[in-house]
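Minutes, project check-in
Item: structure for the 167-residue chain
Input as provided by the requester:
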Amino acid sequence: MTRIDNKICLTNASAEAGARGVGSAPGFTLLEACIALLLMMVVALGSASLFSFSIYNNSGGSERATSMAMAQEALERLRSAEFSSTATDASLAGGTTVQNGVIRDSRTYTLTRTIDDDPTTAAVDVNAGSNLKTITIAVMPERIGGGWAFGAGGTVTLITQRARTNH
């Protein structure tokens, strides 16, 4: 023991053990260990749930990106087709065309192409003499299963208008 300013300080290990109580040892109690284990389990289950969620949405994102690429490719083919006062490419004929079973990246899609010769009406009109066309391309994955990219929610739709050119 040492005396500092009229106070007695205990500096040995037995004095510290006596302050905690008789027979106590350093470490964690069973209750503290159980609470720590419970907290770690909650964190681990949350991480597993997040991992599952990310796999689910990454799969849908991949399908959506492939659908978008297919729709852009189909739209570019129609944009490059001739539509002038002297000639009109057969691919720009009015109406709706559905292609089932289009395979890309080992996945199957449905590609729907709609060309409306009279965009001022609600119905899809076929009029070869029209000077303005509305082109709609829709691509939907056909996979069986869930995901935000399945069904109508996973359909990628691109719409553009094309005017007749005078060459």
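Outcome recorded: The beta strands are 2-4, 7-9, 95-104, 107-116, 132-141, 156-163.
No further action items on this chain.
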